[in-house]
Specification:
The protein is mostly helical. The strands form 2 sheets. Strands 1-2-3 form a 3-stranded antiparallel sheet. Strands 4-5 form a two-stranded antiparallel sheet. It is elongated and about 85 Å long. The chain starts with a strand and ends in a 5-residue tail after the last helix.
Length: 470
């Protein structure tokens, strides 16, 4: 416990309160918060994963599935046991790194909140001193304005005068009985300071953390696809799951898992200046978002899929042989893909998305606004700058030996063609778990999806596919 009495030299400002620091109680006694930070993300991972696995095994919400159960079992190149094993290995590494990170963090304390709010109130008061000068720059007399407002709006008059409030009660600086009295903070200063401290600063911290982790993961993830050695040495393992499912979200090479996920989240936590409890929620949020992105369902009522376009449908494109070199953004937003031109531009090119798209459209009942699964528009293929894919068609030398009927679905002309060519060549470059058989198998599944779609039209569902209830 620490007692602090404040002596300050700002005699014309309201005094800062004394405070007493004590350790913050655990969120879930008797588990220390630092231990909870290690436990909760892993518990959240398996809890949400098992929920989606339950959906899979019970065949709930089949209308929203992006892939059929047959595709999950036939197209993936890794057993479920291997997936669980490697995820557990990554979580062991994650726990060890988290424990070391926790050793660098002080214990969370409390008791200083009123003081910190008062500091923000002082900053607000000090900022008001610039008001008369700013008004003078545009030819306005602060004194005259304040006099005209002094009776009807005394608080506004004080702000115009640079934070000099004549009608406020006064107090004496704490611990110094000989100091000149200073006016107290106004109610609006206290309210704004409270809002800044309790809401704006934490929101900014979370925003910084999200920006850092999205940036970290985008550029490392992109590098692992654009560099052939990095892909075939490390990242190919994650893409043995051509049809993602929830608990395969962290199925990675151990080094990639450490570099991309664990280290990236730790850097974001440190960069944002979070405390332990904030880190708990941030790490858990990252985990839930990652699982949801790999769940294999385009659920129109899933809040994680509604808050951002970087969701299961968007990321599913990245796991397909024709989109594997696109949609690198993860886990939260897609701004890097949009800024650097690496988002898929072919629209909902695959027939396998049609069922989920129709179901989502019905659920959302958005009239003329059409639901998309991949959050892309095929028009972009002909209007967007082809960079950074301008050389992909020329470099896709292996595709010349693949029959056109085994390169399905066919993307629209333009940038999407280049993206698909580069993606399929990357699959061919993966000699261990890729190769031509992957393209052949996916083309066969695509034909089945198209057949199901045609069958649905023949049975009177044409209106729904067009986005109109029949």
């Amino acid at each position: 416990m620490v007692n602090v009495t404040q002596f300050d030299t700002y005699s014309d400002l309201p005094p800062l309160p004394d405070y007493q620091i004590v350790l913050q109680p655990s969120l879930l006694p008797p588990i220390p918060d630092k231990l909870l930070t290690l436990i909760l993300p892993i518990a959240a991972y398996w809890a949400l994963s098992m929920l989606f696995h339950w959906f899979d095994t019970k065949d709930y919400f089949p209308q929203y599935r992006l892939h059929t159960p047959v595709e999950v079992s036939s197209r993936n190149k890794v057993s479920r046991w291997e997936v669980v094993r490697d995820v557990v290995i990554q979580q062991v590494v994650q726990t060890a790194v988290g424990w070391l990170l926790g050793m660098t963090e002080p214990d969370d304390v409390m008791g200083k909140e009123a003081y910190d709010v008062a500091v923000w109130a002082r900053r607000i008061r000090i900022a008001q001193r610039a008001v008369p000068g700013v008004l003078a720059l545009v030819g306005l007399d602060a004194v005259g304005i304040a006099k005209s407002l002094s009776t009807s709006h005394p608080m506004l008059a004080g702000a115009v005068m640079g934070g000099r409030y004549r009608t406020l009660p006064t107090t004496t600086t704490s611990g110094n009985s000989f100091a000149d009295p200073s006016p107290e903070f106004t109610s609006w200063e206290k309210t704004l300071a409270h809002f800044i401290y309790w809401y704006m600063v934490p929101a900014l911290q979370y925003g910084i953390a999200i920006l850092v982790v999205d940036t970290w993961q985008y550029f490392l993830h992109r590098a692992m696809h654009m560099n052939k050695w990095m892909y075939t040495t490390f990242h190919y393992r994650h893409h043995r799951l051509y049809v993602p499912y929830a608990y395969g979200a962290l199925y990675n090479h151990p080094f990639e898992g450490f570099l991309l996920d664990t280290l990236g989240a730790g850097v974001a936590f440190k960069a944002a200046g979070m405390n332990t409890r904030q880190g708990t929620w941030f790490f858990t949020g990252c985990t839930l978002k990652t699982v949801d992105d790999h769940c294999g369902y385009a659920l129109p009522w899933d809040p994680l899929q509604r808050l951002t376009s970087n969701n299961a449908g968007y990321h599913d494109v990245h796991h397909q042989s024709w989109g594997i070199k696109t949609n690198f953004s993860q886990p939260f937003f897609t701004f890097w893909d949009r800024l650097l031109g690496t988002g898929w531009t072919g629209g909902d090119v695959s027939a396998r998305y049609e069922k989920a798209k129709v179901a989502a459209q019905r659920k959302m009942d958005q009239g003329s606004e059409k639901t998309t699964i991949t959050h892309s528009n095929a028009v972009d293929s002909t209007t967007q700058d082809p960079r950074p894919y301008q050389d992909e068609q020329r470099n896709a030398i292996g595709l010349s030996s693949i029959r056109l009927e085994d390169q399905q679905p066919l993307p629209p002309a333009g940038k999407a063609e280049l993206q698909a060519a580069g993606s399929r060549q990357q699959v061919l470059d993966d000699k261990k778990d890729g190769g031509a058989q992957v393209l052949v198998q996916e083309a066969a599944e695509e034909k089945e999806g198209l057949k199901d779609r045609v069958t649905g039209i023949m049975h009177g569902r044409a209106g729904a596919i067009l986005g109109v209830e029949s």
